[in-house]
Amino acid sequence: MKPIKIISGTSHPHLSQEIAKILKIKQTKISHIRFNNDNLFCRIEENIRDHDIFIIQTSTKPVNDYLMELYIMLDAAKYSSAGRITAVLPYFPYVRSDQKDQPRIPVTARLVADHLALAGADRILSIDFHSPQILGFFRIPADQLFASAVLLEYLKKSKQKFDVIVSPDAGGVKRARFYAQKLGASLAVMDKRRSKNDDQVHMGFIIGDVKGKKALIIDDEISTGGTIFNTAAALVKNGATSISAFCTHAILAGDAIHNLQKSHLENLIVTNSIPLKKTHPKIKVLSVAPLLAEVISRIHSGESLSSLFI
Questions:
Q1: What's the CA gap between 289 and 294, in Å, rounded?
Q2: Alpha carbons 233 and 240: distance in angstroms, whole number
C-alpha cells in the first residue's frame, strides 16, 4: 500500500493540522462546498489511488452537517480507488444513544456505525466511547483509543498526585478503577440517577472514603456539567480537601462554563477531541494529536495498538 494521506473535514481543522505535522506529512487537499440549496459537496484535489487514507472528522455542532460531510468524504475516497480508508472520529456521533432502554426508540450509535461502513470506511478510530458495547455495533475493524494515555503522561510530567479517584456513576467504575490502579489511589463512586430524556441529574451519596483526600473525578465527557459539578459538591460535603476532574470530551453545553466558575472544582482537565469554543482559567486542554498520530502510524505499519494502553 502507498503512503499515508491525511484528509480533514471542516469540524476540527486544527487537530488535523497537528496530526499531519507530527507525522511530517502534508494534508491532502480537499475542497468543501455548500451549494445554494444547502447540499454539501467535496472534491479530493490529489491522486489517492492505493494510498492509506485517514479522514479526520469529530462530532461537534452542527453534528448532523459534519456527519453528512464525513459520509460524503468517505464516498469520494472510495470512488477515488483509495487503498484503505480509516474514519478517525475523536468524538463519536450519537455516542450516548447506545441502547434501547425505552419502548419504540432508535439505537442511533449503531445506525451511525452501519452508515460509516456503507459510505466506504474500512476501519474506525475513536476515543473513549460512552459504553463498551458500541464496539459491537461495527462489522468492520474498529479501535477504541483511551485518553488515559494522554492524562497519565500529563500527570507524570506535572507531578500531580491524587488520593482518590471518583466515578460520578456506577457505569464509570471500571474506567475509574483503571485510573486508581495506575495512580496508586483509592476508589470512590457517586450514586446518581438521570432522567430518561433530559440532562436532569439526581445525586445520591458517595460510596467510599474521601474525607481529607485530594480527589480526581473521571468521566468520558462533560456536557452541561451537572453530573461533575454535583459530584464535586458531594465530595466537599463528605470532606474532600481538593477536587479536580478529567473528562475526555469537552462539550460544555449551555451554562457549563458559567457553572464551572461557581463549582467546587479547582481544575477541569479535558482533551481537544472537540474544538473548545469557550475557555476558562480552570480548564486545562490536553492534545490527543500525538496519540492519534502514533496510532495512525502503527496502523499503517501493522503494529500493535494495545501496547499503548497497558
A1: 8
A2: 10
**What is the pTM assigned to this prediction?**
0.94
Q: Write down the pLDDT at residue 40.
A: 97
Cα separation, 189 vs 207, whole angstroms: 5
pLDDT given for residue 203 in this prediction: 61
Cα distance between residue 181 and residue 195, in whole Å? 32
Three-state DSSP at 216 gives strand
3-class SS of residue 101: coil
**pLDDT one-digit tens code per residue, 106-147:** 999 999 999 999 999 999 999 999 998 999 999 999 999 999
All structural domains of the chain, each given as residue ranges with its CATH number in brackets, are 2-146+290-309 (3.40.50.2020), 148-286 (3.40.50.2020)
Q: Terminal CA-to-CA distance of the chain, rounded, Å?
A: 29
What cell numbers appear for 67 in the block? 456527519
Phi-psi region of 173 (alpha: psi -120 to 50; beta: other; left: phi over 0): alpha
Is position 156 annotated as part of the catalytic site?
Answer: no
Residue 201 has pLDDT above 60, yes or no: no
pLDDT bin (cut points 50, 70, 90) of residue 1 is: confident
Considering 21, 78, 192, 214, which one is annotated as catalytic? 192
